[in-house]
Amino acid sequence: MFDTRQAVAWIEASARLVRDDADRLTELDTAIGDGDHGRNLTRGFAAATEKIGDAATPRTVLTAAGSALVSSVGGASGPLYGTFLRRTAKALPDEPSVGGAELAEALAAGVAGVRELGGAADGDKTMVDALDPAVTALRDAIGDGADLPAAVARAAKAAEEGARATIPLVARKGRASYLGERSAGHEDPGAASSVLLFAALAEAAGAPS
């Protein structure tokens, strides 16, 4: 089960991991984007942690966090991450805890929201390249009978692999697409930050390290 305490821990861990890795995210974004990804997400997740204190269910935690990201972060990252969290929340029952299968399906709805907003598909060198394999791995692991900690650990590993796979790709969406062939050879910063989000989820779920 995934409960309110774990949902709060997910957002708080995401804020910490993004803050700690902000310089690397900014370096990645400087190479193929605006150079503000680490700074923007640090501000956004800090705002998110301030908004979730009174939330009583995972659904309300993620709704509050997503809304904070949308309202506090300019550019693409705030709306994209905010949409991911809010769409995930909308797909959850408003209960104090939810099952692993429910969480996986809700996260899939979150990825669908990101696809709709950004128009990105797998292989476009965006955050979808990390989010989609992570959610697929989570669904598959739960379908195979894994408990939530083990399933989320598999999802976090799949996110890492997806982000690394963006390095040789030529960007087809976002600011990086303006560079054409020159975008190849760089890890997508959105995919890199998505890895942190799933690492934080694994931590919150008590996944084995």
Characteristics of this structure?
two-stranded antiparallel sheet, single chain, 209 residues, 67% helix, mainly alpha
Explained architecture:
There is one protein chain. The protein has one domain: DhaL domain (Serine Threonine Protein Phosphatase 5, Tetratricopeptide repeat), CATH 1.25.40. Helix content is 67%, strand content 2%. It contains 9 helices and 2 strands, in the order βαααααβαααα. A two-stranded antiparallel ribbon has the order 1-2. α7 runs parallel beside α9 and α8 (148-164) runs antiparallel to α9 (189-205). The longest helix is centred in the middle third of the chain and has 19 residues, at 100-118. It starts with a strand and ends with a helix. The relative contact order is 0.16.
